[in-house]
Amino acid sequence: MTLKNKEAFQKSIRDRKPMDVWFLGEKVDDLTKFPPLAASFNALSKVYELTSDPAWADLLTTDSDLIEGPVSIYTAPIRSAAEANRKTQAARALAEVIGCCTHRCTGSEAFAGLGPCCYDMDQDLGTDYFKRFTNFMKYVQENDLSCTATVTDAKGLRTLSPHEQPDKDAYVHIDEYREDGIVISGIKVNQTGILFAHEVVIVPTTAMKAEDKDFAVACAIPADAPGCTYVLGRTPQDKRFFEVEGDIEGIDLGKNFADHQAFIYLDHVFVPKERVFMAGEWKYAGRLLNYFTAVHRLTAGGCKSGGLCALCGATSLIADMIGVNKAGHIKEKLGEMVITAETVYGLSMAAGSLGFKHPSGFWVPNPLMAHTCKYQCTWIPFNAVRFAREIIAGTGETAPSEIDMRHPVIGKIVQKEFNPGNPNYDAFDRLRATRFVEHMARGSNWTAMALHGGGNPEAARMMAIRFADWKHMQDMVKVATGMNKDPEFVQKTYENIGQKKGAVDTLLDLPVADK
Ligand SMILES: Cc1cc2nc3c(=O)[nH]c(=O)nc-3n(C[C@H](O)[C@H](O)[C@H](O)COP(=O)(O)OP(=O)(O)OC[C@H]3O[C@@H](n4cnc5c(N)ncnc54)[C@H](O)[C@@H]3O)c2cc1C
């Protein structure tokens, strides 16, 4: 049995070498005991706990082509449409439990990008990256490790390409090519879950030109590798974590699960050859991102729909508590919220179903559909958040604290003020649901994750434009309007429409084994 249970996972994190981690001007000694990271540690622990729960086995584990026994889906490639759909469902279900990032998804998405890309490079260039990558994945499976996809570079001035940046560290780059590996430096930002990862899987953030060769780097390093410094980012609620003690449960945090984002500064970190999956093959950086984003942006629809369902639950509970649940406009707004959840879920499922098999054996979700899914995730959850805030009537902004609600002197008055007046619920129930909505709406990075995690709206729109077959759509109108009456053209266009079953996507130059 290779799967780690919660306790084994927590031990493995405690057993890591000391790391250079900073927050609010202080070095953090023990990440597993640091209040602002407690909810994040809980969230990842919960994912490990559920992975070893038989009731979740079908959803979170799979067989492996590399080792005996079940492995986490987050350490395995996606090999079919069914497995892609399972990734969506797992993301959704886990988000319904933890309401935040699984901390393990992106690592599996880095694998989903690296597998096909390494395979392509080997075919075209005679490299041995696919074998190295497969060996690394086997190691990850054997030890049931949590990995990140460390993509987003600091970037500096956005109009300059990586090699033009005055500070080279704005993008992770290769300082030295050695017989036994490479030495890398630079900064990657907004890294979700990185402080509790075992492995940091680095991939480029953008397509590269020849001059950017040294920035075309993909590799894996242990999170506790020498030369790494981390700085944890703030959240609006971070100081509230320090309030939790005695009878203060942390109701003001909204829930016990959250994620975290940190940046990593790599200062001349040595990466042994067997952990290097791209080193200067600049032409393949864009290809890697094409594969990676197809899976990463599919997942967005899964986890956003799970978070949205939890938001629906909290909002409808509050509507029940304060007695407005039967009002027509409240029902309509709750309806809009659940439709939002189902919309992004549906797009994610469609992206998985309509993908293709790459010659490496990896299944790649439909890129146009995946970018469409992610694009919608940058918009419509905000409508749901707005409805939630409207229905709970501003209390997510103005509610008193748990500390005051439990206070020996003023607690009784505060409870009276926040009592919903419904005999089935008390002030604490209302505060719990209210703080949950607040956490999702503005206390955590949940909405920022919807907007930017996995790429901002422009990145998704740009990719959707690239993967749409514009000539095909023009041809259908040339035929429909009689602009082109050439019988051969007309016949060919009808054939294309029929064979594409109405789809309008293109796969550009991506190699396809089967659709
Ligand atoms: C909560 C959260 C979690 C995240 N988790 C992860 C993670 O786990 N791993 C990871 O690698 N990344 C992660 N990210 C990073 C995320 O992928 C990036 O934030 C996103 O891709 C946007 O990149 P950026 O922040 O550098 O902004 P930019 O891409 O620089 O965009 C900033 C603005 O400038 C515009 N812009 C940028 N370049 C140009 C240009 N050349 N011309 C015109 N306009 C331009 C953009 O449209 C945007 O409006 C996370 C982000 C958030 C907010």
Q: Can you count the beta strands?
A: 14
Q: What integer is the average pLDDT?
A: 97
Whole-number tally of structural domains: 3
Main structural class: alpha+beta
DSSP summary: helix tally: 18
Q: Provide the CATH architecture of the largest domain.
A: Beta Barrel
Specify Rg, calculated over alpha carbons: 24 Å
Main sheet characteristics: 6 strands, mixed
Bound molecules: flavin-adenine dinucleotide
The CATH top-level class label of the largest domain: Mainly Beta
**Shape assignment:** globular
CATH fold field value of the largest domain? Butyryl-CoA Dehydrogenase, subunit A, domain 2
Q: Considering DSSP H and I runs of 4 or more, what fraction of the residues is helical?
A: 40-55%
Please state roughly what percent of the residues sit in beta strands, choosing from under 5%, 5-15%, 15-25%, 25-35%, 35-45% or over 45%: 5-15%
Give the low-pLDDT segments: none
The main sheet orders its strands as 2-1-10-11-7-6
CATH superfamily of the largest domain: Butyryl-CoA Dehydrogenase, subunit A, domain 2
Q: How widely separated are the two ends?
A: 34 Å
